[in-house]
């Protein structure tokens, strides 16, 4: 997804890079998020473009303004309403790159921020426990955590 200004400035090079990576999908245009109405339009554009049951991998490195937050909320919504799996949410920290010593290239760390989405699951499970006394969801999350270790 990209704004009209981003499409004019980077659209052609983005399309070439995606083609070179054999990436599937399409690039959708979104608004510039200059009003609350436009923020909801962006949320709808995101959620309407993701098919049920798919797996998503996201890079929010160059997310503009409020887009990373809206995407994060949309991911939570999609997991619940469309059984979407989140394969990863990543952020490239260009400002933390090494400065390229000698002939070595500049390299920036990439942070996996997917666990922050998982924190929402724990929050919902704790809320369910506090509201109903049911620890079923917490038990399921504990089992999943133990299996992943």
Shape: globular
Rg over CA atoms, rounded to whole Å, is 19 Å
Instruction: State the separation between the terminal residues, measured CA to CA.
Output: 35 Å
The average pLDDT is: 86
Strand fraction equals: 5-15%
Count of separate DSSP helical elements: 5
Percent of residues in helices = 40-55%
Quickly count the domains: 3
Q: How would a crystallographer describe the biggest sheet?
A: 3 strands, mixed
Characterization of the model:
Helices cover 52% and strands 13% of the residues. It is globular. The protein folds into three domains: 1-30, no CATH class; 35-112, no CATH class; 114-149. The chain contains five helices and five strands. With 149 residues, the chain is an alpha/beta fold. The mean pLDDT is 86. The strands form two sheets. It has a three-stranded mixed sheet, with helices on one face. It has a two-stranded parallel ribbon with strand order 1-2.
Q: Which short descriptors sum up this protein?
A:
alpha/beta, 13% strand, 149 residues, globular
């Amino acid at each position: 997804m990209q704004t009209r200004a981003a499409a004019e400035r980077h659209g052609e090079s983005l399309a070439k890079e995606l083609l070179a990576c054999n990436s599937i999908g399409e690039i959708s245009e979104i608004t510039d998020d200059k009003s609350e109405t436009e923020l909801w339009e962006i949320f709808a554009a995101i959620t309407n473009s993701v098919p049920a049951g798919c797996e998503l991998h996201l890079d929010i490195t160059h997310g503009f303004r409020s887009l990373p937050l809206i995407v994060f909320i949309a991911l939570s919504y999609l997991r619940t309403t469309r059984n979407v799996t989140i394969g990863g949410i990543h952020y490239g920290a260009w400002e933390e790159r090494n400065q390229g010593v000698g002939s070595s290239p500049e390299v920036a760390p990439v942070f996996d921020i997917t666990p922050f989405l998982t924190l929402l699951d724990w929050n919902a499970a704790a809320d369910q426990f506090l509201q109903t006394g049911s620890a079923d969801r917490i038990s399921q999350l504990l089992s999943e955590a133990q299996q992943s270790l």
